[in-house]
From TrEMBL, chain A:
It is found in: Cell membrane. It is a multi-pass membrane protein. This is ABC transporter permease. It comes from Herbiconiux moechotypicola. The keyword Cell membrane applies.
Automatic annotation (TrEMBL), chain B:
This is ABC transporter substrate-binding protein. It comes from the Bacteria. Belongs to the bacterial solute-binding protein 2 family. PANTHER family: D-ALLOSE-BINDING PERIPLASMIC PROTEIN-RELATED, GALACTOFURANOSE-BINDING PROTEIN YTFQ. Keywords: Signal.
Length: 350, 330
């Protein structure tokens, strides 16, 4: 029992989960109906469902980002890739004679994802072949990408009226939001592919020591290509969900600062920016913490002027609680308590 | 890509400038020498950027108005950066244009460059947004919307709509970007008007950052904690459009179960108004071109334009939207 408790407390996921539960508790106090889930028009409806649905794009990008960060890289271009993929899909839909047909939407989605894939290959090329530092390599696409999205939309907000496309963002499958289903599939896929095969270990080895991995016969170049392409692809999917959710491509605002949310989700989840060991489950918790935080601001009624300060305080608290220094302090505390117990026992025995 | 494009454009503009200088280098600061023929006038316009559909409409209208009037317009896009705008204004001063017009990205930090324009004898006109300066001799005229007035117009409609009701009216406000002048002023004007009757209660007020996604997410959350809300006041159409989605997802009918008032009157907003999903829109017109041309002509004729010129704007209810929609330019 005690060992189980110890394992729980020392787990990297302990503090993020505590934070998530604390945020949920705050919401329940401010708004007692927070956890209520009802069925409305044949689908689930409630605050928790909103959090899952609105958090799905961040989660999808964060899954890709986790793998990139595990290779000691970073991808700043995900927001721009999301904007481009949304812009491409909307302009195809608007240009077609029948935007409401399933076939047109399938073509638009396929082309948008193909372009996201190409952008990922570009990032992978810059990082693995040319050898540019990831932060610089992806910064190029981060700044230029929004310009590309603006060129595609010609600076306008493109509103589309297409039921199948809209379903990506706000539709339901078997009572669950489509966005949540897509998020779950991508999460499961990434977890299976990297944890049920050697892929995850190879990614970690490249992150810990690229040179040693190379000498051990790991093809770092191919792996880097793969993770950056996967990350851009997930950004493309997230961009489609975001765009469908607002039924419009907004080159300026779609996915704005989502790269920071995704990186934050990864960090809250306990994956180190220095590369190596990563935790997809942690990323999931991280993404949920971020989205619950956003909802908390609305339900508690925190004035917009201090919203940023409130969010910063919560994030700082999570990071401090998780830091090695805090963990070490807790470990010392436990040792001291254990030692005292031992002394008490000794005294009682003698 | 974007940067390169701008770089090329800037290089092109410089070439044009050099060509222009050779022909008319001696025509600087000529406003006091009597009216010039209209086709010899040169106006420099430093735009904020192309951040929204509203802004693009603003740019297109100004370019078209000057073309119609036969006045040469030098146009620059500052990409939402003050430093770019200051550079553009300096280059207009060096080129010796007849009038400089610009929409300041931010309110402060303009005194130095405006003093340079003043020293060169080039009159400056502000469009759409104001500058915060002690010295109001730095510009000739400020042409733009009165955001407080827009908020008041929205409030007036709400008061009129609920004049027969004695029940409390619960209102959710979707604010614009925190700290932006339109967000502050539209909230202020609205609050002033509805304060007259204490049956009006703003139960929640959160920022949706002027975007659809923001408006949708905020409304979703607020509708759950305040299910009995009567009215939503959005600081722009895009947030109202997001709110419509959230209201529909909650199984309610926008415009009927929950009434919506917003500001801007962009095309998508007008469409929603005509469809009965929004109840009332206060116009914030980007079509400043004609009025700007008039100011330039007045300056050229040696007249003094009024210091504060308010854009010609109206309001739309649902029937007016149906009538106005076919001719909507933006």
């Amino acid at each position: 029992m005690n060992a189980l408790l110890l394992r729980t407390v020392t787990s990297r996921l302990f503090w993020p989960v505590v934070m998530l539960l604390a945020l949920v508790a705050i919401n329940v106090i401010a708004f007692p109906g927070f956890l209520t889930i009802t069925v409305k028009d044949g689908h689930l409806f409630g605050s928790v469902i909103d959090i899952l649905r609105n958090g799905a794009p961040t989660l999808i990008i964060a899954v890709g980002m986790t793998l990139v960060i595990a290779t000691r890289g970073i991808d700043l271009s995900v927001g721009a890739v999301a904007a481009i993929s949304g812009a491409v899909a909307c302009s195809i839909l608007l240009g077609s004679s029948d935007p409401g047909s399933f076939g047109t939407v399938a073509v638009a989605v396929a082309v948008a994802l193909l372009i996201a894939l190409v952008l990922g290959v570009w990032n992978g090329f810059l990082v693995s072949v040319i050898g540019i530092q990831p932060i610089i390599a992806t910064l190029i696409l981060m700044t230029a990408g929004r310009g590309v999205a603006m060129l595609i939309t010609e600076g306008q907000i493109l509103t589309v009226d297409s039921a199948p496309f809209k379903a990506l963002g706000s539709g339901f499958w078997f009572g669950l939001p489509v966005a949540v289903v897509i998020g779950a599939v991508i999460f499961a896929l990434a977890a299976l592919l990297t944890r049920r095969t050697a892929l995850g270990m190879l990614i970690e080895s490249v992150g810990i020591n690229p040179e040693a991995s190379r000498q051990a016969g790991v093809r770092a170049r191919g792996l880097l290509f793969t993770v950056y392409t996967f990350c851009a692809l997930s950004a493309g999917i997230a961009g489609l969900i975001l765009t469908a959710n607002q039924t419009a491509a907004d080159a300026n605002n779609t996915g704005l600062f989502i790269e920071l949310d995704a990186i934050l989700a990864v960090v809250i989840g306990g994956t180190s920016l220095a590369g190596g060991r990563y935790s997809l489950a942690g990323t999931l918790i991280g993404a949920l913490v971020i989205q619950t935080l956003v909802t908390t601001v609305y339900t508690v009624g925190i004035p917009p002027i201090i919203t940023m300060v409130f969010k910063a305080a919560v994030v700082t608290a999570v990071c401090l609680l998780q830091s090695p220094a805090t963990n070490a302090a807790f470990a010392r505390l436990r040792q001291r308590i254990a030692a005292r117990h031992a002394r008490v026992k000794e005294a009682a025995a003698s | 890509m974007k940067k390169t494009f701008i770089g090329l454009a800037a290089a092109g503009a410089m070439l044009l400038t050099l060509a222009g200088c050779a022909g008319g280098g001696d025509t600087t600061a000529g406003s006091s020498e009597g009216p010039k023929p209209v086709d010899e006038l040169v106006v420099g316009f430093a735009q904020v950027g192309a951040e929204s559909g509203w802004r693009t409409a603003n740019t297109t209208d100004i370019q078209a108005a000057f073309k119609d009037a036969g006045i040469e317009l030098k146009f620059s896009d500052a990409q939402q950066k003050q430093e770019n705008q200051i550079k553009a204004i300096r280059s207009y001063i060096q080129q010796g244009v007849d009038v400089i017009a610009f929409s300041p990205v931010v309110e402060t930090g303009w005194d130095a460059v405006l003093n340079e324009a003043k020293a060169a004898g080039i009159p400056v006109v502000l469009t759409d947004r104001a500058v915060d300066s002690q010295d109001d001799s730095l510009y000739v005229s400020f042409l733009g919307s009165d955001f407080v007035e827009e908020g008041k117009k929205a409030g007036d409609w709400v008061v009129e709509e609920y004049k027969d009701s004695t029940d409390p009216v619960k209102i959710i406000q979707l604010e614009g970007t925190t700290g932006a002048a339109p967000a502050i002023d539209r909230a202020e004007g609205f609050a002033d008007v509805i304060a007259a009757d204490d049956k009006f209660e703003v139960v929640a007020s959160q920022t949706g950052d002027f975007t659809r996604a923001g408006g949708k997410q905020v409304t979703e959350a607020l509708l759950k904690s305040n299910p009995d809300v009567d009215l939503i006041y959005a600081h722009n159409d895009d947030m109202a459009l997001g709110a419509i989605e959230a209201i529909e997802a909650a199984g309610l009918t926008p415009g009927v179960d929950i009434k919506i008032v917003s500001v801007d009157a962009v095309k998508d907003g007008m469409q929603a108004l005509a469809d009965g999903k929004i109840n009332f829109i206060v116009e914030c017109s980007p079509l400043l071109g004609k009025q700007l041309v008039q100011i330039v002509e007045q300056i050229n004729n040696g007249e003094t334009p009024e210091k504060r010129i308010i854009t010609e704007e109206t309001t739309f209810d649902q029937e007016q939207a149906v009538a106005a929609l076919p001719d909507r330019q933006y």
